[in-house]
Amino acid sequence: MKPRKLMKKAISALPTALATASLTLLLASCGAGDGGNANTARPTGSAATDAPDRSAGQKEQQTGEQSVQTEADLEAVTLRTGDLAEFPITWMPILGSHVTAVTRPAACRPVESVRMGAFDPRPRASVRRYAAATTGEHLGSATSITLAAFSKADAVQIMAELRDAVKDCTGDYDGGWTDTFTVRGLDPVDAGEQAVSFHLTGKSVVPMWYTVVRQGSVLVLFASTTLTGKDGQVPTPLVTRQITKLQAAASG
């Protein structure tokens, strides 16, 4: 079965309007396309990673949290359908791009990079998933989840720059495209080694909630929206379960 058909089948349990609109809005906000089932192999020809795979003999000497470095490593620890009953998990394509437009003021550039799913520097490997709550208190939420592997130094640097940007980017900023955005810092979730959370609104995009968590040399980006009309958030169960899986793999 083709990836597009699998995606439609996976979200068919949602009300039609919610499933279609939430996926469309989330993909439009993050600049992505269609996807397939998370429990199947990635479709041939899709973007894999910005760095070549490394064999065991070529990898850095890594232990513990830095052992998750390749796409295969990330695939093994991503959320899957069944991990959380209320969240079917489906595959999404990697954006694989940099922020090329000029962000003004420059202090806001790390925030714009997260909005576009374009880490700088680029990750060694990355995978992406989509979770739309079908039941429970988070019904109506739609979340993109990206796991990206870096050197530990790069991961720490990205988090430091993002934390400063959320603090310093207090007014509207120009993303360099067709919109201006307003950033509001949020209390970070208690997960991983470091976490940064913020809310982002714009004139022509739906409100979005973002959380970025660092666990060792892996960054996990959660980008959520809601169509319920209520104030939203990145669903805590998604964050907790995903980071727990990553920690278990790193310590195993």
UniProtKB/TrEMBL annotation:
<feature type="compositionally biased region" description="Polar residues">
    <location>
        <begin position="37"/>
        <end position="47"/>
    </location>
</feature>
<feature type="region of interest" description="Disordered">
    <location>
        <begin position="36"/>
        <end position="70"/>
    </location>
</feature>
<feature type="compositionally biased region" description="Polar residues">
    <location>
        <begin position="58"/>
        <end position="70"/>
    </location>
</feature>
<protein>
    <recommendedName>
        <fullName>PknH-like extracellular domain-containing protein</fullName>
    </recommendedName>
</protein>
<keyword id="KW-0732">Signal</keyword>
<feature type="signal peptide">
    <location>
        <begin position="1"/>
        <end position="32"/>
    </location>
</feature>
